[in-house]
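WARN no homologs supplied; continuing
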Amino acid sequence: MDARLHDIVKNKSKNIEEIVRRNYSGSYLNNTKWYKLIDGLTIEFDEIYIKYKLVYDKIVEGYLFDSVDFKPYFLEPIKYKEVEWIEIPNEYEYWKNRDNLKAGKTFFRQDLKAINTKIDKLGMFKIEKFSDKTKVYAYL
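OK structure emitted
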């Protein structure tokens, strides 16, 4: 486990309710809605690339989802309640072959229009739609 992940598990994630209460005025997603969103997208599109930001971190990470993690985890050890927002880009850079990282990275495209249509069918979410990405908020 790297130092950043260790800090998240041992320190920051323990104070999540306090961080949210202090920094955000509205909560828009709970575990059930997160699970429904990620599950619905990965079933429809097999994989979906997202960028995400945690409520206690300035770093924006990227991840290629092919299925949901076990509840209550967004990505173990990160829980859904720790995610401030996710962003779904129409284009992203990722490994050509995850089994052979020496092959390097390449650019992939996602059908943002189809993704937005699916999100709209899954329920009511606090979202912003742009020409090149969609952002889904858990907290504002």
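The radius of gyration is 15 Å.
OK
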